[in-house]
Design brief:
Layout lengths: L1 E10 L2 E3 L2 E5 L5 E5 L7 E9 L1 E6 L22 H13 L3 H18 L1 E8 L15 H13 L2 E8 L20 H11 L4 E2 L2 E2 L7 H10 L5 E5 L3 H11 L3 H8 L6 E5 L5 H10 L2 E4 L1 H6 L7 H6 L3 E4 L9 H16 L16 H17 L14 E4 L14 H8 L8 E6 L2 E4 L7 H15 L2
Helix pairs in contact: 2-3, 2-14, 12-13
Bound molecules: zinc ion.
Length: 453
């Protein structure tokens, strides 16, 4: 056992100051609470649960700076013009590139307070469309990057079969394509290595009958799908399937707690209520949704209905747990023209938007990833983040205010207060440094120079 004494420790029941944690040799939390443990190692600052990141396309990290301009042939910039640039970049990547990009993205995640990630991974084949000698090559590079960095991983190999409802795949989508047998075999190859879920890409990319066959073939574990990110997609589903994406999933796919609906931006009140009742997770990616001009999820009514949500860094344009939560909060404020729209009075856990958003996202994220994380409690994995009480953004704060200060003022853009990070009982970031950071950065730099000459 290794015991720690935190100045301030966030438990499910609230803050304790000081708080003690005993970490078992297998990396899980044995005990956590206010009871004194003799000889415990002191941790200065605020110890909070690591945040699960429920949606990432790691290689998109390499697009930063190269996609924010008017694309040739497009009159306006949207997800669809961005996608052309992304496809060009993606078609040139080899397995070493994929691993290098993922390692840098995952390192950035740890440093910002994410301790686990669900990787929605869709590049399976060689650039010419043939399978790799090892069909799991690209997926295994993601697993290798996560191991190098030491971040928790839920691997979501993506099933991708069509270029739109009733449309053949585009030539540019040739690296994504698998039939159901090939897909299930990839899932089976990965299962002994890592937590695996299934990820039908979207109702545009997976025909309805194929999706239902997939669900029958894999009756357990996480299911992630992109849904209702754009109004064009909603219209296409209405025309092709007779229902909006979330409406169709509620009626036909048996939504429940296994499901994460990534984005769910353009949904009706009835669809939001259906998601809340089903216990499914709204997979919100506020920075990416802002970057792509997609729109914003309406959180207030959903939250009041008990709807569950988590956050994802998706395109990895800016990787930061606190910045995602701030974008989420500010989107709501701009929409309602009110402040603090998710709070309710009378309780330390409900009166602070930072706390409400942090608690919601850590719990929803843990459910989404199907990992024993998201809280500091016995039996869960010891995934901890230490916020530096000496960081400028947190000076003068108290447990009651610190999560508001972090979310509003202390993300990557505000002088990052994340000082130390533990995953599975092991310190992976100490004093803001990771033991492999120089190698990871050098490999990432090589990929960036090669693909963006
Ligand atoms: Zn996505």
């Amino acid at each position: 056992m290794t015991a720690y004494r935190a100045d301030h420790l966030l438990l499910d029941t609230g803050w304790v100051s000081p708080g003690y944690i005993d970490v078992a040799p297998d990396g899980t939390i044995a005990t956590a609470g206010p009871l004194l443990i003799e000889g415990a190692e002191p941790i200065a600052g605020y110890v909070i649960p690591g945040m699960p990141n429920l949606h990432s396309h790691a290689f998109h990290r390499g697009l930063v700076g190269y996609v924010d301009r008017l694309a040739p042939g497009f009159a306006v910039e949207t997800l669809w013009s961005w996608r052309e640039a992304m496809y060009r970049f993606m078609l040139a990547l080899d397995p070493d590139d994929m691993e290098a990009l993922a390692a840098q993205a995952y390192l950035d995640m740890l440093r910002s307070g994410f301790t686990s990630v669900a990787e929605f991974h869709y590049v399976h084949r060689q650039p010419d469309g043939r399978p790799y000698a090892n069909p799991a090559e690209m997926s295994e590079r993601i697993v290798a990057a996560a191991r190098t960095v030491g971040i928790g991983l839920t691997m979501l190999p993506v099933l991708y079969a069509s270029g739109g409802i009733g449309q053949p795949p585009l030539h540019e989508q040739r690296r994504f394509l698998l039939d159901l047998d090939g897909y299930l075999s990839l899932v089976e190859t990965l299962r002994p290595q890592v937590m695996v879920g299934i990820a039908p890409h979207s109702l545009r990319a997976v025909p309805a009958d194929l999706l239902l066959r997939l669900l029958r073939a894999v009756p357990e574990g996480p299911v992630h799908i992109h849904a209702a990110e754009r109004t064009e997609e909603v219209e296409e589903c209405r025309a092709g399937l007779g229902a909006a994406p979330v409406e169709w999933l509620l009626a036909k796919a048996g939504l429940d707690r296994r499901w994460t609906l990534v984005h769910a931006t353009h949904v009706t009140d009835a669809e939001r209520e259906g998601m809340a009742r089903a216990g499914a997770i709204a997979g919100l990616c506020p920075l990416t949704e802002a970057n792509l001009g997609d729109g914003r999820f309406r959180l207030r009514g959903y939250h009041r209905a008990g709807g569950r949500f988590g956050i994802g860094s998706d395109s990895n344009t800016l990787i930061s747990a606190a910045d995602e939560l701030r974008m989420l909060e500010y989107g709501q404020r701009l929409h309602h023209r009110l402040r603090n729209v998710v709070v309710t009075p009378g309780d330390e856990a409900t009166e602070s938007p930072g706390r409400v958003l942090f608690d919601g996202a850590r719990r929803g994220g843990a459910q989404s990833l199907a990992q024993p994380v998201g809280a500091i409690a016995p039996g869960l994995r010891a995934d901890l983040v230490v916020l530096d009480d000496e960081a400028p953004a947190l000076l003068g704060q108290t447990p009651r205010t610190v999560l508001d200060a972090w979310v509003i003022s202390g993300g990557m853009a505000g002088g990052n207060p994340v000082r130390d990070v533990m995953v599975g009982g092991r310190w992976v970031v100490r004093d803001r440094h990771h033991e492999a950071e120089d190698t990871i950065r050098a490999r990432f730099a090589t990929v960036m120079r090669r693909h963006h000459p």
